[in-house]
Amino acid sequence: MPRAATTSDTFNAVAEPRRREILEFLAPRERPVNDVVAELRLAQPSVSKHLRVLLEVGLVQMRREGRQVLYRTDAEALRPLHEWASRFERYWRSQLGRVKERAEQQERRTNETPEKRRKR
Amino acid sequence: MPRAATTSDTFNAVAEPRRREILEFLAPRERPVNDVVAELRLAQPSVSKHLRVLLEVGLVQMRREGRQVLYRTDAEALRPLHEWASRFERYWRSQLGRVKERAEQQERRTNETPEKRRKR
DNA sequence: TTGACATATTCTTTCTTGGGAATATGATGC
DNA sequence: GCATCATATTCCCAAGAAAGAATATGTCAA
User: Fold this and answer.
1) Nearest CB to A15: which of B15, B17, B88?
2) DSSP A21-76
3) What is the pLDDT of residues A73-91, one digit of tens each?
4) How many angstroms is C1' of D23 away from CA of A56?
5) A100 in contact with nucleic chain D (CB within 7 A)
6) pLDDT of residue B98
7) Who's near B73: CB < 8 A, 6+ residues apart?
8) What is the band of A70 on the pLDDT scale with cuts at 50, 70, 90?
9) B31: left (phi over 0), alpha (psi -120 to 50) or beta
10) Closest CA to A98 of B20, B56, B74
11) Residues A64, B101: Cα–Cα separation, whole Å
12) Do A11 and B14 touch (CB under 8 A)?
């Protein structure tokens, strides 16, 4: 089974960094596509494609106005993500003492090959 | 450019539903791999691969104990995700009145083909 | 050592992605 | 109609992804 489609749900849609930037830009108020192109310095077709993905999962709303198409983030659609992460809040609260130690362990492991790691 | 690796960051790692389930299961306390296999009814190699991805982005910690390898969710690593979603909290609060209307629009659009949608 | 248990890796197959370039569609004003 | 602005789609490509099956590695116990 290949990886799930980016349009399958919110989690997959926001996995792409550019789409997260677009969502942030379109959160305060609606904007035409070209504003996104100019602000984020992306190619226009690229922006259109990202917006399509976001629209399909309901993360943005769209409205036609003359020649322009105005997009806006539908923040409500991000709540499931927020709530899912919230389920872990109680755990990171109780793990605070061990955080630094673990971060250091993790850093030591970074850039090691699987072979080296396996020997441990 | 193809899609970013699942190990590139937290967002990509949690885009996979099975990995989210694994994180939930391993949040309360550490568990051997086979417990994950049994509980989530996944193939053992599949679980090992998912755990590897989670380990590389720091979402789980690992500890060897005899023949077993114990894994545990590092909830702290989910905070960036939670905080990113929190940035949109003020927007969904102020958009509450329009939510139902939009959800209905979205539902009407679901299962429409791009061709139909384009005509609007 | 041998065998059994626990976990990890490799290989193959099927499928999706995001960028770039080119082109198509859509709306407006003359 | 025609040129122009604004946006969307299509085609191609390189890079992975996830599942399944088979196999490898590691550890303990007798």
Assistant:
1) B15
2) HHHHHTSSS-EEHHHHHHHHT--HHHHHHHHHHHHHTTSEEEEEETTEEEEEE-GG
3) 999 999 999 999 999 999 9
4) 42
5) no
6) 58
7) A88, A91, B23, B24, B26, B27, B59, B60, B61
8) very high
9) beta
10) B74
11) 17
12) yes
**pTM, whole model, 2 decimals?**
0.83
Q: Are strands B60-65 and A68-73 parallel, antiparallel or unpaired?
A: unpaired
Q: Is A87 on the interface with B (CB under 8 A)?
A: yes
Taking CA–CA distances from A19, the nearest residue in chain B reads B11
- Please tell me whether any atom of strand D lies within 7 Å of the Cβ of A29: no
**CA/C1' separation A103–C26 (Å):** 53
Please tell me if residue B112 touches chain A, with a CB cutoff of 8 Å: no
Cβ contacts below 8 Å, chain A against chain B, sum to: 98
3-class SS at A84? helix
Local confidence pLDDT in tens for the 120 residues of chain B: 788 889 889 999 999 999 999 999 999 999 999 999 999 999 999 999 999 999 999 999 999 999 999 999 999 999 999 999 999 999 998 866 555 555 555 554 444 434 333 333
The answer to whether A113 and B100 have CB atoms below 8 angstroms apart is no
Q: What's the pLDDT tens digit per position in A55-65?
A: 999 999 999 99
Helix (H) or strand (E) holding A20: helix A17-25
DSSP string over B38-81 = HHHT--HHHHHHHHHHHHHTTSEEEEEETTEEEEEE-GGGGHHH
Residues of B with Cβ-Cβ distance to A91 under 8 angstroms = 27-28, 73, 75
